[in-house]
Write a structure and sequence with these properties.
Distance between the termini: 45 Å
Shape: globular
Radius of gyration: 32 Å
Number of helices: 27
Protein name: AAEL013428-PA
Strand content: under 5%
Number of domains: 4
Strand order of the largest sheet: 1-2-3-4
Amino acid sequence: MATERSFRDIVLHELQLPVEILDTFEGANIDSDRLSRIPRDELEDVLTVAGTTASENIAWNIDEIFRRIVEWRQESGFGIIGFEDVEIVEDWLACDNSEETETNTVEPRDSSAASEQKSTEQITADTEVCRETEPSPKIPDPSIDSKVDSATSAAVPVPTLHRKTTTSDDLPSSLPGTSRAAAAGVRFFSPASTGKENRNFTPDVLVQLLEQTIVGRQLIERAASGPLSSESQRELVDIIAEYHCASGIKATEYVLREYAESITTVFKDETQDTYLVIRGGTKRNPGGKIYYRISNRKQKAAKRKRIEEKHQTETQKQAGKQPVDDPTVKEAEYWLEHNSQPWETTLNKWKDSFPARKPLLMKSNAVEEVLKRFRHYSNEFGFQLVDKDFDLLAKGDKNGSRTWDLCLEKLIRFVKRPYKDTFSSDIVEQLVSSELDQNSKVCAILILLNNILLPTKVTKTFKPTILSAQEDVIFFAASDAEAIQKVNEYNETVCKLGLKPSPKLVFRGESFKTLTGVFEVHYQNIVYRLDSAVRAIDVLIKFSTVFGLEHSRISRLVWNFVSSYMYKLPVPEEYGSIIKLKRYLSAD
């Protein structure tokens, strides 16, 4: 079980998550027990807030992280989380101090029979008037104090919160004269009784806010049965977060404390630590469900705004344009359909026909159609067409290959470290002692990076070794036959794993030390021959981007680094080891 290993080992080694996520978990008071029960949406809240407050503004792949956590739960014996388990497993950030009590709790009053009857009659009369005259619900203004006369009772009826006639027979409480909210375990206090004379968000404001929606009224009724379930807590936090975002105020610690105190005042079985964790130590921000949900809402709203702005920009660019009806596009398509030579003309027509080809690019499920329709990719100089498409797509730095010249020596210093295996140690020795040319140095770096950018699980049951990743990143072959054999073996292996083959590098020579000067990129029946290792890597990255193909999962962290750092391409996942390497290369 999880208790047999430290939480750090679980996160870094079993889940293979970066140390930044470990720090985030520890800052949010998440341990192995909570990790075994945390739901996806609250995991997203925690990591989204941490990502937006980080200096690098990291956007974590929540689905991948949660998938690893679920697998860990199953392998550790926690089982699969289903809908029937939600109310149990989502109980996170609960207060550990079960003996903590409310210091401001007011004892129930002693009522006479006459006063009880009067209170019941007053509720009935007042609520009947409210039902006839009450206007449409509005969100209470946070700038206006909502006050109730101070009293010695634990529950003061608030007639305006009821929308139906209530009698003593209807009340779930055994005490006549108790309001529906009070009977459900909801308490009303004046600002003075809770230690706040000038509060903006009071318990009464919260109750009024809840009374505006069906969900809110249900939450009040559920309070009678004890502590709220995790699902009910989420609904409560959603209502408060929506109110907060609509009010336009900042989520200061004072404001968050008001929210938490109002919740624990209204819902007597809830604990403040569930909703607010005061920042301390190295934490720059507070924690708790309210802060995470507010931050998550703001982040999603900002992302939604960017999506709309991007959509509007693209719509404006394409307004009035119909590529299929463009005579130049149609003429270029027709020429390419019937010709492939002269090659200079092909290059010119290729650019003209791009609008017709663009809808099919960067889609892995359309690669067969594109290669069949535009057979020119299979030409020995087809990589020039890939260059043009990559440039026209404008998805990354087309001159990314130049980065090798700028960071080669730094990368060599980074990978030159002691290794336990003789294969890696021999490569380091060659880097230090021999006069390798740039091609061999680039090969050595890609191979050694697998010791630092460790391979991750390819499937649920298969995780490659470091040696497997080193052999996968570049194939070395002495002949055409050996090159084809190695590529075919790779394709068969990934197909057995249920994956699609990726473009592969095949360099001629027995090893990185004995290169003959032929550097190839293989994909299906396409073979491009280039004159340098850097150029072959350049074509591989651009080819994968143009056709929307995934890099080999066996050595994916290496290709994730090359794509994101050298070509400024967006990647689906961020890893702590890659972030650390980027920081090293960016430092003076």
